[in-house]
Amino acid sequence: MDDILAATEHLAALPYVDPKQIYLGGHSTGGTLVMLVGETTDRYRGIISLGPVAAAEQYGGQFVYCDPNDESEMRLRSPMHWLHCVESPMYVLEGASGNWDGAIELMADANGNPKIEFFRVPGHDHFSVIAPLVEVIADEIVGGKIKLNRQSLLNLR
Q1: What is the DSSP letter of 50?
Q2: What is the pLDDT at residue 130?
Q3: DSSP 18
Q4: pLDDT at 144 over 80
Q5: pLDDT at 46
Q6: Is 20 helix (H, G, I), strand (E, B) or coil?
Q7: What does the DSSP assignment read for 81-136?
Q8: Would the N or C end of the chain have less CB density within 10 A of its end CB?
Q9: 25-34 tens-digit pLDDT
Q10: Is residue 135 within 8 Å of residue 25, measured between CB atoms?
Q11: Cα torsion for 106, 108, 113, 119, to the nearest 10°?
Q12: Residue 7, burial from CB neighbour count under 10 angstroms (0-12, 13-18, 19+)
């Protein structure tokens, strides 16, 4: 997370970047990571997480760079425990037949934070959802605001 925050500050210092217009996005493990970053700072105009896990345990002990038997270490790496900390708008999306079955529902059910929206995208899986979503989100960012809703996602190509 420190590397992402440092990269953000470097980007914000560039003369052609508006530091108040920086969005953060990631897919799969990157989606999990951007959620964790978004749970620690209000630095971003918005956070887009595609296909994250809700809890580090969903990796099944693989790809977890801590002791998977240490509950406190796993909790720190599990976005669902920190949803209440999110202060920037956050959009969490997954294809309806995604990799982490139930992750979106698990977090949506646990969420009480109005800054976070969860979407299952019909007709897509963990990977096929990326390109069409990036097109829609990029256009909305250029337009000045992300306006995702269930209806707009129904007809995603």
Answers
A1: E
A2: 96
A3: -
A4: yes
A5: 97
A6: coil
A7: GSGGG--S-EEEEEEEE-SSTTHHHHHHHH---TTEEEEEEEEEETTTTHHHHHHH
A8: C
A9: 999 999 999 9
A10: no
A11: 140
A12: exposed
